[in-house]
Specification:
This protein is mainly alpha-helical and 265 residues long. The chain has 12 helices and no strands. Helix 6 packs across helix 8.
Length: 265
């Protein structure tokens, strides 16, 4: 009786490979087609553009943003034209604003990080520093102080708020910011001003703080526009005499009695 011949391992492997060959060939075909296709980048920075090709152009800004940009460009062109005319006429130009560098917000919005009162405190400090830098005159300190106080008080800032909105200087976004600031003010007004004046002054201070933190060139434009001699006369207000004599809120009873006696003398 003859023994059965068993298949060797090599022949068994060949037969198994032959059985798998259709699937392996199909898989190799898919890999070849995938390698021949143009490679695509999955990065969000280039919008999924193919390697070696130019990135897709950014989408156009919304119509409202385009209108704001056009208004700013027109205002910049008008101011540059006025400066050229004044230079030709020999009119001295105001010195550029020099303030400490604002903090890096890393693309964040000041309105999202601070409330209106906090921004108003910052804007008030920037406003007064800008005025003192612009009108600094060590030879005549008394008139210098009066000039600054006539522009750095609630009445003057409320009037400047009306000029900025009334003459259409502010963009739609800046006007919306000022309305938000006026409606968010919760601090009680001083005794020498009405609540409406205090809200308007707060709105102007918030606008100054916003521009200081985000756009220094725009802040320079605001100051140059408001502090022009022909326009500053329309909104500067000397501080009322009773406000200068009234003691600060929270003063002691002795200080108030001394102030009353001085006013009665």
């Amino acid at each position: 009786m003859s023994a059965a011949v068993l298949p060797s391992h090599r022949s068994a492997g060949r037969s198994a490979a032959g059985r798998r060959s259709p699937h392996a060939a199909a898989r190799r075909g898919r890999l070849a087609r995938r390698a021949a296709a143009p490679a695509r980048c999955c990065s969000a920075a280039d919008g999924g553009a193919e390697r070696g090709t130019a990135p897709l152009p950014p989408p156009p800004p919304p119509p409202q943003q385009q209108q704001q940009q056009q208004q700013q460009q027109q205002q910049q062109q008008q101011q540059q034209q006025q400066q050229l005319e004044q230079q030709q006429q020999g009119v001295p130009q105001p010195a550029p604003l020099r303030l400490p560098l604002p903090p890096d917000l890393r693309g964040g919005s000041p309105r999202a990080r601070w409330n209106a009162v906090s921004l108003a405190f910052l804007g008030d400090a920037v406003w007064e520093a800008a005025l003192r830098t612009r009108f600094y005159d060590p030879a005549n300190a008394r008139s210098y102080g009066r000039q600054v106080s006539a522009m750095a008080n609630t009445h003057a800032q409320a009037a400047a708020h009306g000029v900025v909105l009334g003459e259409g200087w502010a963009t739609a976004a800046e006007a919306d910011l000022m309305r938000w600031a006026a409606n968010s003010s919760s601090v009680p007004p001083p005794a020498h001003a009405t609540r409406q004046q205090y809200k308007q002054a707060t709105a102007l201070e918030v606008l100054v703080a916003q521009l200081y933190l985000t756009d220094g060139a725009r802040l320079q434009q605001l100051l140059d526009w408001l502090l022009a001699p022909e326009r500053a006369e329309a909104w500067q207000r000397p501080l009322p005499e009773r406000a200068q004599q009234r003691p600060a809120r929270g003063a002691s009873a002795a200080a108030q009695r001394i102030a009353r006696r001085a006013r009665g003398a």
